[in-house]
Amino acid sequence: MITQELKDQLVSIVGTRFYLDSNNERYAYSYDATPLYQSMPDAVIVPGTTEEVAQILKLANEYRIPIIPRGSGTNLAGGTVPVEGGIVLHLSRFNQIYEIDRENFTATLGPGVVTSELHQAVEAQGLFYPPDPGSMHISTMGGNMAQCAGGMRGLKYGVTKDYIMGLEYVLPSGEILRCGGKNVKDVAGYDMTRLMVGSEGTLGIITEMTVKLLPLPETKRTLIAYYSNLLDAARTVEKTITSKIIPATMEFMDQATMRVVDDFVKLGLPLEMKSMLLIEQDGTEQEVDRDIEQIAEIARAQGAKIVEVAQTPQEGERLMVARRSALAALSRLRPTTILEDATVPRSKLAEIVEEIERIADKYQLQMCTFGHAGDGNLHPTCMTDERDTEEIKRVEQAFEEIFLAAIRMGGTITGEHGVGMAKMDYLGLKVGEAGLDLMKRLKAAFDPNGIMNPGKMFANSDRRRVVVKQ
Amino acid sequence: MNNLLKPNQATPVCDTDKMELVSKGSLSKFDMNEILNCMHCGFCLPACPTYRQMGMEFASPRGRIALMKGVAKEELAVDAEFEHHMNLCLGCRACETACPAGVPYGSLVETAREMVEDQKRDSAKPSVMKTVVFDKLFKNPQRFKQLGTALWAAQSVGLQTLADKTGLIKVLPRPMAEMQKAVDKIASPIARKKREPVMKSGQANALKIGFFSGCIMDVMFFETNQATASLLQKAGCDVLFVQEQVCCGALHAHAGEKDGAIELAKRNIEAFEQAEVDFIVNNAGGCGSALKEYHHWFHDQPEWQQRAMNFVAKMRDANELLAELPPLTFSKRIEAKVTYQDSCHLAHGQGVRNQPRQLIQRIPGVEYIEMNDADSCCGSAGIYNITNYEMSMDILDDKMKQVEQTKAHYIVTTNPGCLLQMKNGIIRAGLQGKMEAMHVMDLLARAL
Ligand SMILES: Cc1cc2nc3c(=O)[nH]c(=O)nc-3n(C[C@H](O)[C@H](O)[C@H](O)COP(=O)(O)OP(=O)(O)OC[C@H]3O[C@@H](n4cnc5c(N)ncnc54)[C@H](O)[C@@H]3O)c2cc1C
Ligand code: SF4
Ligand code: SF4
Asked: Which domains, and CATH codes, for chain A?
């Protein structure tokens, strides 16, 4: 509860315009992109400076009010749902790029900068920030950092954590701290930067970040291959990499996804095929041509029935349309679309896809699988209807089996979407009881009163399922 | 306030039972399937001009849909705050173009506004929108011609008199004062009376076009309508000004006055049936998009729905039809840089994007320059620049920065509202004399 007295103090920090607590205003911050989760905050604050953030946190800490940091609310783990009420801290005003340092290959920016705006700004100078989550035109860099977002270029270039060099962050105590910086080498103490990355807003608020940049690759080319079974596609992925070629992108779609996509965009895909791979390579023209030709050969040798190589960038774009429209096509089928991101070692790709098919069958659900084949990061996606309580229960059980299967194959419950609320009951499966315990103690060191994004990451009861009220 | 989702609930899940109940029942006018189609992905956020201005979730399409869902689930009331948030939306439908899930946002927001109006009727308290649009300004669409005469008379004697005579200045001081500066000299009643009811192409087997002249368009931009008709005539069509037509009803529909809108639609359908034309053509994106959606207005009247479908099948925007007909031959050159501002209801509503650009580029001498974010709303949005003046001007000023970058001599658009807004924008940006705002049809006619 925010008392009138506390409200007055908060308003005096940010002004009335940026303190919002009417019914409609709060309601609009009661959800994020995760289906099925919703809960009302007590207020929404849109701070403008680090100093304001520090003052707000200090007060909230004193009054034990939960703080839920929020970027654009596109996460898929229920990470910004104010499950215990409190204050949603919307960081959209921290949207400036302060510096692009061409000598050190870094950019320094506020956490509210939208990912693709950073792309544009650095690419205009011939530089490159590789992480490209599917949500990049909407998601913020702060959200990417706090979730350690991945993307299509993950295979060759890594994910957000590989690019965060330094941070400014605020603790619940109101202390403003800095870690890392522009140094390529820096081993002074624990690596706090790495710890903050992927912390899902449970440790502190990031108010500034310095990211690593690369030179922008000269060119890129695309290839598409269709297979009459899953194994050949999976083997193409493996063989490509063992031949020491690391493509920028290796995307996979199963037959169910292909059917839905083709029905929606009418691309004339060969629907009798069981799976398809979309592969993109970037680099110098010479390297790219050589790699793409070699990959085409590998694909054919592994039994690809059809291999198409784009001759121009425009044609490459056309080929990528199928993958880009996957989510759109799937989401039109039924009212509710639930997308997961179980991840396995590359070598288990075919096995997990088959397992997902079997599980979908067992629970009589409509599921399609697509995703980042090169990273073993798949998106089994279930089309359902949130009003059908009985079906949602089956969805739950099916996903639980998929998580367990992934773990069994040496994989993980989430490759890039994070734990949040959606997967907190499964975190123990991956990190073990002792691991959970250490993580909780770490959190207590940062946030002794538990005000930072409470009810996320760690299940606070022995409740196993979170989605459906029993 | 009825049961809002409470924080501190042990299990923060959506209340599926309640939703089922609402979607079955008749508690709200919303189609729950359409609302649930929104998966909260946020793809629409960067496309939304009001979100870009304010950066707050409730000023975004996703936020507004969530508020509607709240109303549908009876977790939010249809109250003044809800009305405010629904009215802050431009209705530009850029979010529909951006949405991967195909959420019909335009019809959802119309339903929301309809519910606001219903609520007001019940409580006998008129909404802002209704006061401004229907009581003060447009009381009756038929009065447009009279208003036109009043405006013409006032322009002839001076703006001050206009302000006094019409009393408009008292209701809407700043927006109207600014708009007046932007309004061109309008055609005299005599000129308007002299219009030929039919313009023949003189060709055998000519296409017969029923011209939908539009109420605002025909008063404020009479010459543009004449120019459009001449272009069609030159392209080999017989153009008929159908006399019995009335206002398209778009403003009514957007403001939640659905019953009034449906009445107008029926009269138009009848008028054009009797005229027996091959195509119905108009040149205002906003009206066109409503005219092409008439069949959605008659879900519970099958006979009218069929008649509406026949009407819709014949509807074309003038750009659309001219781009299909054999190319016009131009006799004059226009040595100028030209850029194009999409009309939201033409681009996002009707998917007509290339045709006006093609037509402009066919004019000899023209150097066409594409503007950044050309399909992002200019802030005019029907009467938005009157009801939400400040936001509208913020959006316009941002737009003018993009316009200025093109260094164009002509900023061309295809809707009366946008045209007025751009004219006003030129004044606000201090570009008078350097740049002129113009309707596509006028530019084309100038080169004939
Ligand atoms: C269509 C779609 C496609 C997607 N594709 C991908 C993909 O390819 N790869 C991928 O990894 N993810 C993907 N996502 C998930 C999501 O976009 C990412 O998790 C993204 O990083 C979230 O960014 P955001 O700005 O929306 O953050 P939010 O959702 O607002 O917040 C995410 C988390 O970060 C915390 N947080 C935000 N800002 C701060 C801050 N300044 N300080 C501390 N904590 C903070 C929040 O509390 C929350 O826990 C996708 C989502 C959608 C809807
Ligand atoms: S883009 Fe469509 S589905 Fe996504 S949030 Fe917006 S309206 Fe909803
Ligand atoms: S119609 Fe335009 S202003 Fe309204 S929500 Fe959609 S994009 Fe935003």
From this structure: 4-90 (3.30.43.10), 97-215 (3.30.465.10), 219-409 (3.40.462.10)
